[in-house]
Amino acid sequence: CSDDSDNDALSADPDLNTSIAEEVVDGTVIRTVVYMGKDGTEWKNTPIVPNAQTRWPNVVTLPRNRIPETQNVTSPAEVFELFISRNMLSLIVKYTNEEGKRQRGASWIETDHTEIKALIGMLVFIGAQKQSKVNLRTIWDAFLGQPFVRTTMSYNRCFQLINLLRFDNKDTRPQRRETDKLAPIS
User: Fold this and answer.
1) Which residues lie in coiled coils (predicted)?
2) Of 9, 58, 107, 146, whose CB has the highest number of CB atoms within 10 Å?
3) Positive or negative: CA dihedral 147, 148, 154, 159
4) Residue 167 in contact with residue 92, Cβ under 8 Å?
5) Rounded distance, CA 160 to CA 139, Å?
């Protein structure tokens, strides 16, 4: 590449009211195109090289982690337990099994902590993939679906669990609803 091609690329254009400025920074010659605005403002096509430290009010410092519960979190399972505790998970398993027995009778296969965790994780994954509005059958489809979802559980089991998932005791709900409108999930 010759210097003539560089000169052509950075030549001044009187129609656009431009000129070429050369600056020496740390022994290097920097050529920039300077555009002149109608009001006399100069615009350059290269960023201004800062020659001073940033003022302290303009410095952004991120706070340290001040939430004690998250100080010792080292795995995704521990992060999951920050949102859904073991006690909450036990209640979900208990009330889901009660509803399963109530609706399905002897054909209900009881769920456990692992299966409910898998269901919640799978639903979070589906949401993260922005497929929350997609038909469940499509998500399990061999060609269009997600392999992760198919290997987690079958479509029928997932559909059963979603329909029977309960967070509270259904028998005491009417009494609690008198004082709490969010009784089913409180």
Assistant:
1) none
2) 146
3) negative
4) yes
5) 16
Residues in the chain: 186
SS3 content of the chain, % helix, strand, coil (to 5): 50, 10, 40
- Rounded to whole angstroms, what are the CA distances from 65 to 71, 83, 98, 99, 181? 7, 17, 40, 41, 35
Sign of CA dihedral 84, 92, 127, 78: positive
Q: Write the pLDDT tens digit of every residue in 41-94.
A: 887 776 665 566 666 676 777 666 666 667 778 888 888 888 888 999 999 999
How far is CA 64 from each of CA 26, 41, 57, 67, 68, rounded to the nearest angstrom?
37, 43, 19, 9, 11
Provide the token pair at 102.
Answer: 């109530």
Q: Under 8 Å CB-to-CB from 9, ≥6 apart: which residues?
A: none
